[in-house]
Design goal:
0% strand; 115 residues; elongated
Length: 115
């Protein structure tokens, strides 16, 4: 109620509590139902996002464990092939970063020359 109640409902509840009377039933009941519905919707959305995150983590976990299993079972050749693959990926990434840095450096030098 504290989270989603409108100011009007809060004032009515404060007034009725100060007079010692029971709550104005209809308005407060409707307001509580709406607040509960909103909270349930928020909780549903949160659970849905956690479930989709868990699905992604499960896919990644399966991938890592299958690669690990193939390395453990495959022997020296499998390990050598995996290391070669990782070195190639590292080399490609480093070359990409170097090109990116050079390109960015040329842009900075051109800006300095114009100024």
């Amino acid at each position: 109620m504290r989270v989603f109640a409108s100011d009007m409902v809060k004032k009515v509840m404060a007034r009725s509590a100060s007079r010692g009377r029971a709550d104005p039933q209809f308005m407060i009941t409707k307001s509580l139902e709406r607040a509960q519905t909103r909270i349930e919707e928020l909780n549903f959305d949160a659970r849905k996002h956690v479930l989709s995150y868990d699905d992604v983590m499960n896919i990644q976990r399966k991938s890592v464990y299958s690669r690990r299993r193939s390395l453990l079972i495959g022997g020296k050749e499998a390990v050598d092939a995996e290391l070669a693959r990782l070195f190639e990926i590292t080399r490609v990434c480093r070359n990409w970063l170097r090109r990116k840095r050079r390109k960015r450096g040329r842009g900075i030098l051109q800006l300095r020359a114009r100024a």
